[in-house]
């Protein structure tokens, strides 16, 4: 019996019974398309290979595969989630570096802003973080990838599978919600921003 002629479900059943060659057929069947999927989102061959390799390693460690899985869909979703996790990890590292730079330049900021200004900025930041947490998941994801991840709309579209127009709308709507929340809690914020802008222009 040639295993490569079997369906995904038949291969899964054999693998779950201990037939390791069945897993090799699954690996060979989906490796290339999963790699292309990951590479398209990451634009990095080495990282794409690592992502796909890790997905199959997790399957091996799990020891069995649910025969009710729509295997192509499950594997492609796993690639997408793994890539998003990579981006979030990258964002976290960049944020850590940004915080270090911010700490080093704190004295300079203190010289340019008085205590009242610093307190106001902190309060606004707290409101923004609070509102971010209640944004719809898709809006939150697109905005974070755009601002923290510094990705273009086209890159976010490739990563999430949403079209460019949808990503643009999500980012725009998320920003508007945050702006409205800030002005709702701090009506004086517009005046504060204008004052800071005038001071810079002096």
Describe the protein in words:
By secondary structure, the protein is an all-alpha fold. It starts with 7 loop residues before the first helix and ends with a helix. The chain is elongated and about 75 Å long. Helix content is 81%, strand content 0%. The model is unreliable at 96-111 (pLDDT under 50). Helix 7 (137-147) crosses helix 9 (164-185). It contains ten helices and no strands. The protein has two domains: 3-82, Orthogonal Bundle (Rna Polymerase Sigma Factor, Chain: A), CATH 1.10.1740; 106-201, Winged helix-like DNA-binding domain superfamily/Winged helix DNA-binding domain (Arc Repressor Mutant, subunit A), CATH 1.10.10.
Classified by CATH, the class of the largest domain is Mainly Alpha
Structural class: mainly alpha
CATH topology of the largest domain: Arc Repressor Mutant, subunit A
**Domain module count:** 2
Give the fraction of residues assigned to helices.
over 70%
CATH homologous superfamily label of the largest domain: Winged helix-like DNA-binding domain superfamily/Winged helix DNA-binding domain
Overall geometric form: elongated
Beta-strand content bin:
under 5%
Radius of gyration using CA atoms only = 24 Å
Mean pLDDT across the residues is: 79
Number of helices: 10
Flag low-confidence runs: 96-111
CATH architecture of the largest domain: Orthogonal Bundle
- Whole-Å distance between the termini? 83 Å
Task: Write down the secondary-structure element order.
Answer: HHHHHHHHHH
Biggest pleated sheet: none
Number of strands: 0
């Amino acid at each position: 019996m040639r295993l490569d002629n079997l369906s995904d479900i038949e291969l899964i059943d054999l693998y779950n019974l201990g037939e390791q060659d069945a897993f090799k057929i699954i690996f060979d069947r989906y490796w290339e398309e999963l790699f292309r999927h990951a590479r398209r989102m990451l634009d990095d061959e080495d990282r794409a290979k690592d992502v796909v390799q890790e997905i199959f390693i997790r399957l091996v460690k799990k020891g069995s595969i649910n025969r009710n899985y729509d295997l192509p869909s499950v594997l492609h979703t796993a690639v997408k989630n793994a890539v998003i996790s990579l981006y979030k990890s990258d964002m976290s590292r960049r944020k850590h570096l940004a915080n270090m730079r911010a700490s080093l330049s704190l004295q300079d900021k203190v010289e340019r802003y008085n205590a009242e200004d610093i307190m106001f900025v902190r309060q606004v930041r707290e409101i923004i973080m609070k509102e971010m947490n209640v944004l719809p998941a898709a809006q939150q994801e697109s905005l974070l990838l755009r601002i923290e991840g510094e990705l273009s709309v086209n890159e976010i579209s490739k990563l999430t599978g949403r079209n460019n127009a949808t990503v643009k709308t999500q980012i725009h709507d998320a920003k508007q919600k945050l702006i409205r929340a800030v002005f709702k809690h701090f009506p004086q914020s517009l005046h504060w921003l204008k004052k800071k802008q005038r001071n810079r222009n002096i």
